[in-house]
Specification:
There is one protein chain. This protein is mostly helical. 47% of the residues lie in helices and 10% in strands. It has six helices and four strands, in the order βββαααααβα. Strand 2 and strand 3 form a beta hairpin. Helix 1 runs parallel beside helix 3.
Amino acid sequence: MEIVKEFQGEYRFLSNFWPAPLVYRGIRYPSSEHAFQAAKVGEHPKWDMLKMNLAQIQSPGEVKRVARTLRLRPNWEEKKVSIMREIVLAKFTQNEELGRKLVKTGSAVLQEGNYWGDTFWGICKGKGGNWLGRILMEVREEPQAKQKAA
């Protein structure tokens, strides 16, 4: 069984930092990282201007740094996995070439291996929940099932 141990090189496109424009909840973001960071503030219309400002930030790393200074929505911990799933699905359905590349990973286990200690979304030093990898594998299953049925 093939294992993709990190989202680098030919698999860099799996990273949320990969430049892949998407529309999420009516706002266009330059990457899934931008959309995810913006989702942390909540869904009230009063936050739309802030989200649009976050969408204008040049790099995913910078939007992540800025978002760390913001107050999290009250239900963030309960919602973050389902929000990530929505955003990853948007990334790979709105960018057809990336969707094809995701499907081409076949049955490989996708691991968001990292060195910065993220053991929720990824795996660091052999430990972690790998939630981003799990979500990517879930999103990959739907088009694969359609191809098999065709």
